[in-house]
Amino acid sequence: MARGTPTALLLLVLLIHSFGRHHLIDASSTTIINHGVIRQPLSSTIVSAFREAPAFRNADECPHGDRVHVAMTLDANYLRGTMASVLSILQHTSCPENVSFHFLAARSEPYILSAIRSTFPYLDFHVYQFDSSLVRDRISRSVRLALDQPLNYARIYLADTLPLGVSRIIYLDSDVIVVDDIRALWEVDLAGRVVAAPEYCHANFTKYFTDAFWTHPALSRTFLGRRPCYFNTGVMVIDVQRWRAGGYTRMLEFWMMVQKQRIRIYQLGSLPPFLLVLAGNIKAVDHRWNQHGLGGDNLEGRCRNLHPGPISLLHWSGKGKPWLRLDSKKPCSVDHLWAPYDLYKSSSSSLEE
Ligand SMILES: *[C@@H]1O[C@H](CO)[C@@H](O)[C@H](O)[C@H]1NC(C)=O
Ligand SMILES: *[C@@H]1O[C@H](CO)[C@@H](O)[C@H](O)[C@H]1NC(C)=O
Asked: pTM of the full predicted structure?
């Protein structure tokens, strides 16, 4: 992605002005102006790459004084996924005007912001710069390169990042499609817990950690007194105040430090620290809210079918992403459920000439 032209800086400044309060992307970042060569920005291609979504209006019965806050990461590589997720949320909620989006981005890429603004002209959104240096030294290599991107760890820092007024947040990965009213997930009773998410107690929990972990006398006691179950961190409802008060970010960082500096205790990316701190202590949500694994396994991304039962959220976790498989003309059958939310217009524009 091109960055660092005077035009980019100007655009960024304009964006910050027009977006108001919480747009914390650092406009003074010198990396933006010290880029000697003026390169042709990719802005025009990215900004015009997506169709404009329709304006979604509230139904009559929308409550006053209750906004739904959704957090996602924002990255050029997953932008198509993010756009589709946002569209799916707006399309299926009865109160689309009362949903606010909080995007965490690793770099200030004004083109991405204007792409969102032009695709969703009515969207209430805020962008925060996630400081990758917070985690860079804490990340250890996992089984899949994509899991090692600093932005993948941004969810650990949500509570430090969001404005104080946001006391609850729904965190979503960029490869989800919501096919139900997000408000139903928002209103889940956390019953004093910090995180709510679908829980999978039949999954083999042992395999998320190494033998070195389970045979270590002190480490293996971590789960003593709780019944840990796997949960997927791509869909979480978080009580931000409780998270802050309980110092959960520091607890997760502790385990990342153990992994990095002491002993290799897991193979995946940002998931295991969440399991170490929270598994067995979360509020279980109906499985309909995370039909996960549709991207296939972590190594090859083989096709997978839907699990039986009602579905409110589809999640292409795993290696394969629906937009890539559709583009390669080798989609899995579940990818056709993603396609209706695709706002990317390359395929249609190639037909125009
Ligand atoms: C929700 O949207 C309605 C418009 O339908 C608006 O009047 C109300 O103030 C909004 N509530 C909040 C908390 O944003
Ligand atoms: C769970 O996984 C571990 C480690 O891969 C394995 O040793 C164990 O037999 C599995 N347990 C079950 C019940 O499948």
From this structure: 0.84
